Amino acid sequence: MSASPLALKVADVSARYGRAVSALDRAALEIPEGAVVAVLGNNGAGKTTLLRVMSGTHRLHGGEITGGQVFVGETPIGGLNPRKIVAHGVIQVPEGRRIFSRLTVEENLRVGGIRTRDRRSAAEARARVFDLFPILADRRHQRAGLMSGGEQQMLAIGRALMASPRVLLLDEPSLGLAPLVVEQIAHVITEINRQGTSVLLVEQNAEVALGVATHAYVLELGRVVLSGPASELRNSPAIRQLYLGDGAPLGDEVADGPRPVLAPWDFTAAARTRSRKAS
Ligand SMILES: Nc1ncnc2c1ncn2[C@@H]1O[C@H](COP(=O)(O)OP(=O)(O)OP(=O)(O)O)[C@@H](O)[C@H]1O
Question: For residue range 142-183, what is the model confidence (pLDDT) as tens digits?
Fold first, then answer.
C-alpha cells in the first residue's frame, strides 16, 4: 500500500460496453490528496470511460466493470451507484457542460448543493463559487441557457463545487472554448486545487492539461502507456510528437504492455518532498 495519502485510486480496472467493446484494459491511476492529475489520450482511448467508472455513471451508458477496483481513500467504490459515490465526495462535471438551461444561475447552483443539509455550509460553498467566478454572481438571476459557452462551463464547475467535493472530475473543460476562456478555466482549476480539492482532468488539449496538472497519464486503447510528473511529460519528445500529430502512437514504441517511456513516478517520494517544503 502507498504511504502517501491517496484521494482516489483506480486499481487495474477493465471495462467494456456490451460484449464486443473493450474500453479499459487494466487501467491504473492514482490521485494523491491535493493533486491535479491529467489524463491525455486520443479519441476513443478510454478517457471518458475512466471518468465514468470513477463516478459510477458507466452503467448509464451501457458499460460494465469487468475487473479491478476503484478506491476513495481506502474505501472501495467500484460498482456503487452514482448517488453513493457522490456521497463519498467524488463529483463529476460531465462533458458538454450539462447545465439546466431553463433554470437561472442561482437555481443551478442550488441543485448542486441539494445534498448539503447544513445551510451554513451551503452558503459558504456558494460564496466560494461566486468568489471563483464573479461573473456567476453578476448573472445570478439570468437563465443559464442564455449564457456563453465559457460561462456555462464555469456554471457547470460551480455547480459541482456546491457539493464541496473531495475529488472533482472534469471531462474536457476546454472543449470548444476560445483561448482566453480556456486560460480562465485553467486558472480557476489551479485555484480550486489550491483551496484543497483534488482534481482529475481529462483533456485532449495537452498544452492546457500539462500546464495545470501536477501529474499526468496517457491512455491508449484503454491502457496507461505513459505516466509521470506533468513537468517531465511536457518535455517528453514522445508527448511532443504525439500531440503535434506526426508521431507514432506510444503503444507502437512500447513493445508489449504498458511500459512507460519515462520511469514511473514515485508519488510517495514526491508527497514527502512536498510536505518537507510545506513545513
Ligand atoms: N456508450 C457506449 N457504448 C458503446 N461503446 C462506447 C460507449 N462509450 C464509449 N464507447 C467506446 O469505448 C471506447 C472508449 O471510449 P471513450 O469515450 O471512453 O474514449 P475517450 O478517450 O473519452 O474518447 P473521446 O475523446 O472521443 O470521447 C471507444 O471504443 C468508444 O467507441
Answer: 999 999 999 999 999 999 999 999 999 999 998 889 999 999
* Dist. CA 121 → ligand 1 center (Å): 37
With b meaning 16 or more CB within 10 Å and e meaning fewer, what string describes 47-68? bbbbbbbbbbbbeeeebebeeb
Nearest CA to ligand 1 atom 3: 17
| Total-model pTM | 0.85
Nearest to 29 by CA among 11, 5, 54: 11
Q: Which one of 14, 39, 49, 225 would you pick to mutate in the ligand 1 pocket, going by the greatest count of ligand atoms within 8 A of its CB?
A: 49
What ipTM score was computed for the predicted complex, to two decimals?
0.97
- Which of 132, 164, 196 is the last residue before a domain boundary? 164
The enclosing domain of 18 has a CATH number of 3.40.50.300
- Angle CA 159–140–122, to nearest 5: 45
Closest residue by Cα to atom 18, ligand 1, is 46
Residue of minimum CA distance from atom 11 in ligand 1: 23
Per the structure, the complete domain to which residue 156 belongs is given by 102-164
